[in-house]
Structures
1.
Amino acid sequence: MSDTLALTFRQYRLERRLFWRNPSAAFFNLGLPLLFLIAFGVIFHGNEKELHVIVPGIAGMSVMSGTFVALGHNMVALREQGVLKRMRGTPLPSGAYLGGLALNAVANTVIQILFVLIAGRLLFGIDSIKDVPELVVFLVLGVACFSALGVAFAHVIPNSESAPAYINAVFLPVILVSGVFYDSADAPSFIKDIAQILPLTHLIDGLTGALVKGTTLGDNAGHLAVVAVWTVFGTFFAIRGFTWESRRS
Amino acid sequence: MMGGVAGESAIEVRDLRKTYGSLEAVRGISFSVARGEVFGLLGPNGAGKTTTVEILEGYRTASTGTVSVLGFDPAQRQRALRERVGIVLQQTGIYRNIRVREALIHFGGFYPKPRDPDEVIALVGLQEKADATAGTLSGGQLRRLDLALALIGDPELIFLDEPTTGFDPAARRAAWDVVRSLRDLGKTILLTTHYLDEAQELADRVAIIKGGTIVAEGAPRELGVGHASRVRVSYRDALGEQVEQVTDDPTSLLYQLAGDALDRGERLEDLEVSRPTLEEVYLELTADVQEPEVADV
């Protein structure tokens, strides 16, 4: 077991090295949330209410882009290139390999969240995090949830060429309806109904509680439960549909 | 079947079958590979070679029949087995921006007793590319990296699924030398290939697979005798033209030719008697007698 953990960490370190070796990809991967935050900061300059929506909203979006989007792309590419199949033929335990990949996505998410929190403090007057444990709980569960959903969704995507279309077809509508850019309470009721089903809405509500409103974990238990249900759902399909090989060969 | 030399065999396959829906890809094949032997699987595309090898590698499970690899059931996917086996897949990928030496060091970490990365790099002839990223390698160089990654764990048994595809002639010769050096080290090698000269050069024994069954098996030299008993006789006839005849009964043909030549008072010029090459045996055995495809039913 300790050996598996050591190999997981080793795989994670390789993934990190390779990630930084492609600086333009690294820049866009890490810089996108920051870019969004600055753009909306300029638009809503001086409007504290909107800014307090945008910071937890972009934090939630970072979780989804850092895990769901990144792992979705990554798993499809690795599967289609035959990397997964090669790894499967080595003694490296599957859990260590997939764990290394997931940790890499988590590391990127953590960096993005830190950027958002620092920018929120410096630019948008979100001086102190209201509830640190609550923030950590929601981030951990959010990362687990969207990682699992990303791996599960990769099973649906037939090949690398179609991966961006499939992933954006989910990612863009979800961030639009889930209240990343506006207070979901202000949305039309049919949008609100859809948003209530989606995990990102509830993650953002939890993050808003921890960062801005100061509501407690107890107050947000319902939101936590919805994200947890999606995590279970995602994990089930991530494991069940997993294939190590391209379906084309 | 020649059977194992000393000790248990490295690979045992007994009445292996693999069906995909109504398609029977492998239809009951049996063979064994002795430790230290280079065994070649030859056959046209879709013959069941890769399916068979991938069952032995643990990628697929047998529908029926038994397989044993170094005493393990590969379907159990035990790490102890994978530590002793090196695999060169027919098609595979690697991270584009990983460096050659870095990849070998990383993969070496999966195994209990890895070989020295630089030694393996030299073995496959990638010294000048040791610090290059995989994305900058040519197809043949990537294939050599595949081989290097299969050897880094110092495996006892090596699966090579069409290992020299895309190689120029010099690189093929070099790869053959690597395989021979592995055999000299006592490694067991299961080789699938399209190239008959490759099988003839490297394999101690060859099985020819067609339509999911083994149609011929033996040492490359023996195959020529056993399975196509015909002999090719080439000579210059009375008109001075070079003629080639294939016969099942070379004794009487030669008797007749020699008699005719003596009657004419001539010598039998440019006489050549040869056994069919592995290539001819292969082409004969794999020639498509248009059978109805199971898949079309």
Note: DSSP finds ten helices and twelve strands in chain B.
2.
Amino acid sequence: MQRSVVNSYELRNDFPILKKKINGKELVYLDNASTTQKPYSVINSITDFYSNYNSNIHRAVYQLAEEATTLYEQSREKIANFISVRPEEIVFTRNTTESINLIAHSWARTNLKKDDGIAISELEHHSNIVPWQILSQEIGTRLEYVGIDENGFLDLEHLIELISSKKVKLVSLSHMSNVLGTIVPIERIIKIAHENDIPVMVDGAQSVPHMPVNVKNMDCDFLVFSAHKMLGPTGVGVLYAKKEFLEKMRPFMGGGDMIKEVFKFHTNYNEVPYKFEAGTPNIADVVGFGAAIDYLKKIGMENIRKHEIDLTEYALDSILSINHLTVYGPRDPNYRGGVISFNIADIHPHDLATIMNDHGIAIRSGHHCAQVLMQRLDVPATSRASFYIYNTKEEIDKFVNAIKEAGRIFKI
Amino acid sequence: MSDDIYREIILDHYRNPRNKGKLENADVTVHDSNPLCGDEIDIHLKVDGGVIRDVKFEGKGCAISQASASMLTELVMGKDLDVIKDLKKEDILENIGLTNLGPARIKCALLSLKVLKVGMVKYYSENDPKSAEQIKNESSLY
């Protein structure tokens, strides 16, 4: 294994919150799959926007508005460049969830019909389940679940069968599981789906922040992700869709900015992507997201991925040596992200998280918005630690010691 | 800190819950869960002459929620409904000896009381709507 190329100890100085003390201990933040912390550059860019550029975009002709518009559109360019697509293929939403709902509303509702199947997997986050259930109730589409094996890998054979038998008309998959960390072989799936003329939606909420994602190579039809899981602010999501899809999709919401001309009884819509951005958007946070992209690019996504493989391997080795501890998901760090779900003996995850908090350690406990997966694993909940660029092996040692401490308190 | 929460008695009720299981011919059965963490509690009550003659609970969840439910069944067994009607959240926290829980974990401790109160409302709504209304109003305090 190559040594970590990210200097976490140095990077940590860029994140003011990491200096915070919890119960007298240094904060060890291991809930990055949920949301990540923000560096000064992101925080400052938002302050700078409100201090020096604040105005509404796309309309007014005065200088301030032009500057704000430029900053907002520069962020769109940065994000397009980050995943290798065209800026007009980037739609800003509130979050990944809204992006998927937009696809369900504006694409699936008009392109799918009764009895058409939608393939998702047992790994999905609720945001890639519930919108399709709602659609099914409304227009009679059917959900087809692709199962997973005991290591958390997709049953590819079943998926390929669903695709080649044309039972499904849309494949909508998480690229990386937010619970097991499983990385799905999405390029291969997209290739097979396209050979059968079936479009693919990729939930990149966990993958885009943690590994290089190149849409040009991947060739997905839709990709969705959130700014706040990649150092950016909350309240900004991204929908990427191929331009030919966006152009044929009907609007999501109607209102200002998404129009070209409005008459008493009809409207000509604006061109893409503006057709899908009704109303004043979250301008300052989109600008902040641009600063987050700059920060990530400076480190390099390849390096971030290597750092997380390194941390994950170290963490897995450590915790698997603890008695009565079960880890869910793939063992090989090359096939998984830096997300580790586990249970220890009969300690409920919420009790474990409470004990962890004594040590200043923030881990997640519960169903992680993936109850279908919990049912598949036959557990009510799991504990989850998830890593990012600023996490260190020293923090993982603290985390492992706290698990052992929990074992002592629970007399295991 | 956690050593104060996970005392012997909590772990004992968690691992050896009292009055756990189903109650055949229950007069009232109520289920509720905490959507935040997935804790689940069912309470079955057998009521006769204004007195809880038998109570059992089923559930899954953290040590706090399950121990609290177990201890609650011991608290209310054989008691007059009038007494139980007035049970406050402070009574429960005192009963389980956890008065310093944070806002997230306090919900775990109080889930069983919430279920019990809904059960009481269900029971009273048939013959004593006034009492049912009173419990409802007071229960919305937490």
Note: The longest strand of chain A covers residues 168-174.
